[in-house]
Structures are given as structure tokens and as C-alpha cells.
Design a protein that fits this description.
Blueprint lengths: L35 H15 L6 E5 L5 H8 L4 E6 L2 H10 L5 E5 L11 E7 L8 H11 E12 L1 H4 L18 H9 L5 E8 L1 H11 L2 H8 L2 H8 L8 E4 L9 E6 L1
Parallel strand pairs: 1-2, 1-4, 2-3, 4-5
Antiparallel strand pairs: 5-8, 6-7, 6-8
Length: about 260
């Protein structure tokens, strides 16, 4: 279930007239079976946020393929604008997701927007990509209407990178965070920050425990690795993840900061 980075992987079964996107490792995509673990891991956070933005004006920064902005719009947000700098992602998103109250614009997260316009901003799994995260968060704060909330997520360095390393091998990441580093970053800009952790649940929790008991050796010895994961990975759903503010953050897969 490691990230697939070969550009030969492209989305399957796209609607007529919608160009499929290649999987490069810079963003996650739906409709790529081998990427399903990472897609569901991101989607579950969008769905959690979607329950909290009904009737609100929402800005989805670095929206990528567009599935997250579409999830927010489908859940009843008053309006959703998805913003991404990549021309291929922008073109794909605007052609594929055409729900009412949903639109897409091309722009840089550092500069796009109108001050005080949005009730909620989502910026998921992207802050690890930016050169000046404090400036980006400050810009988001300026874009929020009074009482607005910014939802910011990022992977946990301790569970993403090899033990003792300061960064994973993802070439798109500039800085990966420990829990206290991520909290301190958000608190340097926002007055109130609550941090949740994302964890495995259900079948992924069973798989995690099996790995600790030596499952990697077993499936390789039996020669069933490809057959097993060709079925297991596409079957993963959002129910196989859990967001919690009560569990140890150092064990989380990702962090989600709710910033006010």
C-alpha cells in the first residue's frame, strides 16, 4: 500500500470528454485501484469536514483532482471554490465535477483570494509541500470571514518516514511534521487550534496487527502477495480509518488541525 509514483498509472473509466490524470505521486487520485488506500485516507477527512460546513462558503485550496471540493459541495455547502495551480488538474476538475454551487479556479495558494470572503477553508495534505507555511496560513486567515475555520491536514513524520529520519522519500515534500511542530506552526497564526489524529480502523487495523505478527514474511513465502493486495487494496473504504482527538498523536497517520 505504498504510494504509486509511476506515471503509467492513470485514472480509469472517466466520463466522456474528461481527460484522465496520471498518478505522479504529487497528488492522490480516485479511480486508480492501486492508489485506493491513499485516496480513501484523504477522502475520509473531507467527509468529516463536509458534515461541518453545510450552508457555508467554502474554499478548497490545492484541490487537485477535485474530488474533495465535490464532496464538500454534495454535502450541502452554500458554495465551494476549488483552487489549484496545476493546469491539467484544473481542467480535469472543472470538466468532471459540475455540481451546482461548485466551481474551480486556477491560482497559487499563496496569493489567490479576496479578504474575508469564506466561512471555511480546507488545505489538506499540502502544507508539507510549501516553502513558507506560515505565510500561507496567514493568507488563509485573511481570507476567512469572522468566525471562520481553516482545516489543515498533513502526514505524521513519525509514521511516514523511516525511523529516525527527518523526511520520507517523497520528493514533493519540503517539510514533514511531528505533532508538536504542526501544532506550533498553526498556533503561530491562529488563536485556537485543535489537532485530531487519523488512525487505521476495521480491516486496516487487523492488517496493521498482522504485519506486526509477520504477515509480510507469510504472503511472500506463499507467493500470494500480488493476488492478495490486488483484492485487498481496492476494497479499502473510508470506514477503515478513524479521526480522533483522544488517541496518542505520535501514532497517528495524519494530523488534522481545526484552526480558528
Amino acid at each position: 500500500m505504498s504510494p504509486v509514483t509511476a506515471t503509467t498509472y492513470v485514472q480509469q473509466n472517466q466520463p466522456p470528454g474528461v481527460p484522465p490524470l496520471p498518478l505522479t505521486g504529487e497528488r492522490t487520485l480516485p479511480d486508480v485501484p492501486a492508489e485506493n488506500y491513499w485516496y480513501r485516507r484523504h477522502l475520509v477527512v473531507y467527509e468529516w469536514i463536509a458534515k461541518r460546513v453545510a450552508g457555508l462558503r467554502v474554499l478548497d485550496m490545492a484541490c487537485g483532482e477535485g474530488y474533495g471540493a465535490a464532496t464538500l459541495a454534495a454535502a450541502g455547502a452554500r458554495s465551494v471554490i476549488g483552487v489549484d495551480a496545476n493546469p491539467e488538474a484544473f481542467e480535469h476538475a472543472r470538466l468532471r465535477y459540475t455540481e451546482p454551487r461548485l466551481s474551480f479556479e486556477r491560482g497559487l495558494v499563496e496569493t489567490w483570494g479576496v479578504r474575508g470572503r469564506f466561512d471555511a477553508i480546507t488545505f489538506l495534505q499540502t502544507i508539507e509541500h510549501v516553502q513558507d507555511p506560515t505565510a500561507v496560513l496567514t493568507h488563509f486567515k485573511e481570507l476567512l470571514a469572522p468566525g471562520g475555520v481553516a482545516y489543515v491536514s498533513t502526514p505524521n513524520l513519525l509514521t511516514l518516514a523511516p525511523e529516525g529520519a527527518e523526511k520520507s522519500n517523497n520528493p514533493w515534500h519540503i517539510k514533514e511534521y511531528r505533532a508538536h511542530e504542526f501544532r506550533e506552526l498553526c498556533e503561530s497564526v491562529f488563536d485556537s487550534v485543535e489537532v485530531y489524529g487519523l488512525y487505521h480502523a476495521r480491516r486496516l487495523l487487523v492488517h496493521e496487527r498482522a504485519l506486526r505478527l509477520g504477515w509480510d514474511r507469510v504472503h511472500k513465502a506463499l507467493g500470494i502477495t500480488e493476488r492478495f493486495y490486488d483484492r485487498f487494496t481496492p476494497a479499502i473504504s473510508v470506514r477503515d480509518f478513524e479521526l480522533s482527538a483522544a488517541r496518542p498523536l505520535h501514532r497517528a497517520l495524519d494530523f488534522l488541525a481545526v484552526c480558528r
